[in-house]
Amino acid sequence: MTRGTWYAARLSLTAALGGFLMGYDASVISGAIGPLTAEFKLDSIQSGFAVACLTLTATFAMMCSGPLSDRFGRRAMLRVAAIVFGLSAVASAFATDFYSLVAARMLGGLGVGAALIVAPLYIAELAPGHLRGRMVAFNQLNIVLGLFAAPLANYFIYQLGQDGVSNLAESGWRWMLGVEAIPAVIYFFALFAVPESPRWLATRGDNDQALDILSRVTDRETAQADLDALHASLAEASGKSKGSVFELLNPALRLVLILGAGVAILQQITGINAIFFYATTIFELTGISTGDSLMQTVIVTAVNVVFTVIAILTIDRFGRRTLLLAGVTMVAAFLFLVSWGFASATYTLQADHLDSLPEGVERSAVAPLVGQTFESDIALRKALSGVLDAETMTAHGSDLVKMTIEANSTLILIGILGFVAGFAVSLGPVMWVLFSELFPGWIRGVAISFVGLINSAVSFLVQQVFPWELENLGNSMTFLIYGVFAVIGLLFVARLLPETKGRSLEELETLLVKS
C-alpha cells in the first residue's frame, strides 16, 4: 500500500466511524424492544413506532444534510452528527415513558441521516478513482460492525442480568441504549484529525488547500488533473441552479435519478431493517428462548460483517452491477426459503403449556384449545381471539404464538443468514457507492440527500408495519412479499443499471448525464 493510499484509507475509515454509530443505533433496539415494550406497556403500533421513529427523523436529516454540507462543509456536519449520537444515547437510557423514549430516538435519527449521507460523500470526494468503490464501502463496513457490536453488547448485558448483576435484569435495556455515548465521544474527537473534503474546498475557491490534500492521496499531476476536470464541470454548470432541489427535475438528470431512486427503494423494500431491528423477535417466533435468540442475532450480524468485507475486497474488481445481480438473486432465494420455513410450521397448545401461560392469560379461557393443531400463526391468532379479549391478545398474542410453534428453526436461521449474506455483498455497500458516483458535482449533495430520503422513507415504512404484518398477514406471507420485491428489483438492475467501476466522477458525469 502506497503512502497516498494509506493516507486516503485512514481518513476514509475515520469519517466512516459515523457508520458504526448509525449501525449500533439501528441494531441495539432489537434486544431492547422486548423489555421496554413490557415496561412501558406498548401495543404493536407503539412498539413499531418506537423502532421506526429513528428512521423518520433520519429521513428528514438526509434531505437537509446534503445541502447543509454543501454550505458548511462535510467535516462540520460529521461533527454535529457525533454530538447528536451522544446526546441521543444518554437521553434514551434515561427515558421515563414512551414519549421521552421516542423523542430521544428521534434525536438520534438526525445523526443517522447526516452520517449516512455525508460520510460516503466525503470519502468519494477524497478517494482515488480506482479505489473509490472500496473506500466508500468502508462506511458500510462500519455500519455492519455497528450492527454486530449492538447485539453482542445486548447479549453480554442480558447475560449479566441473568447472572444477577446489579439490576440489569430490569434495566438492562437502558444500558443497551446508553453505551453508544462512548463511541460517539471518540468519533467527535477523531474528526479533528480529518481535513475537509478537497473537492468541497475547490468549489469554495480554496484551490491550494484542495490540491495539497489531493496530492497526498495521489501524485500532484493527477491531483491537478482532477481539479481541472472539476472546475470544467463547475464552469459548464455555472448557469444551473446549484444546490436547488428543483434542479433534480432537469431532464439531463432523469436517468441517474431513476437509477438512484430505484436502488434506494430496492435496498429497503426487501426487509433488511425488519431483520436487523426485529431479529430477536423473529427468532423467538421460531420457538427458541430469548437468550438463544440474542445469540442467533449475533451470528446474523457476524455474517453481515464477513460478507461486507468480501464486497469491499471485490467491488472494484467485479464491479457494482455484477455484485448487485449476484447478491439480489441470493436475497430473493433465501427470503423464499424463510417464507417456506414458516409456512411449514404448525402450532399446538399442549396441556403443559397451561402451567407457563403469560401473566394475565386465564387458563380456563384457553383450555378449550388444548390439543388442537393449527397450520398457521394466523389461524392460531384467530382461534385465540375467539376466547381472549382484544387487550389480552395485544399484550400476549405473540407470546402464545412463540409458545406453541413447532418449526424447523435451523432452516429459518439458514434462510435469514443467506438473505443477510446476499444483502451484505451487494445492496448494503453498493448502494452508497453508486450514490456517490451517479450524480454530477454541481448537484451531488442535494441529489444524494433526495435518494437517501427515499431510502429512509421506505425503511421507516418497513419498520413501522412489520409488527402489524406479522400479526395480520402472518410470518410466511410477510417474508414472501419481501421475496417478490427482490425479484422485481433484480429485473430493474438487469435492465437499467450500467457498470460504473474504474471511472472518475467527472467521466461518469459525461457518460450518464445528458446535456
Describe this structure in words.
With 515 residues, this protein is an all-alpha fold. It folds into 3 domains: 3-194 and 237-343 and 410-512, MFS general substrate transporter like domains (Growth Hormone, Chain: A), CATH 1.20.1250.20; 197-236, GTP Cyclohydrolase I, Chain A, domain 1 (Orthogonal Bundle); 346-406. Helices cover 77% and strands 1% of the residues. It has 24 helices and 3 strands. The chain has helices at residues 3-15, 17-27, 29-40, 44-72, 74-93, 98-126, 132-162, 168-178, 181-190, 198-203, 207-217, 220-236, 254-269, 272-284, 290-318, 320-343, 363-366, 377-385, 390-404, 409-424, 427-438, 444-472, 475-496, 505-512, and strands at 346-348, 373-374, 405-406. The protein has a 3-stranded antiparallel beta sheet with strand order 2-1-3. The longest helix is centred in the N-terminal third of the chain and has 31 residues, at 132-162. The protein is elongated and about 80 Å long. The protein starts with a helix and ends with a helix. The relative contact order is 0.15. The mean pLDDT is 83.
Q: In what order do the strands lie side by side in the largest sheet?
A: 2-1-3
Can you identify the CATH superfamily of the largest domain?
A: MFS general substrate transporter like domains
Kindly state the percentage of residues in helix.
Answer: over 70%
Low-confidence stretches: none
- What is the highest CATH level, the class of the largest domain? Mainly Alpha
Evaluate the radius of gyration: 24 Å
Distance between the termini: 39 Å
Any idea what the shape is?
Answer: elongated
Number of structural units classed as domains: 3
Tally of strands: 3
Q: What name does the CATH topology of the largest domain carry?
A: Growth Hormone, Chain: A
Could you tell me the strand content as a percent range?
under 5%
The largest sheet is: 3 strands, antiparallel
Q: Count every helix, treating DSSP H or I runs of 4 or more residues as helices.
A: 24
State the CATH architecture of the largest domain.
Answer: Up-down Bundle
Tell me the structural class: mainly alpha
Mean pLDDT: 83
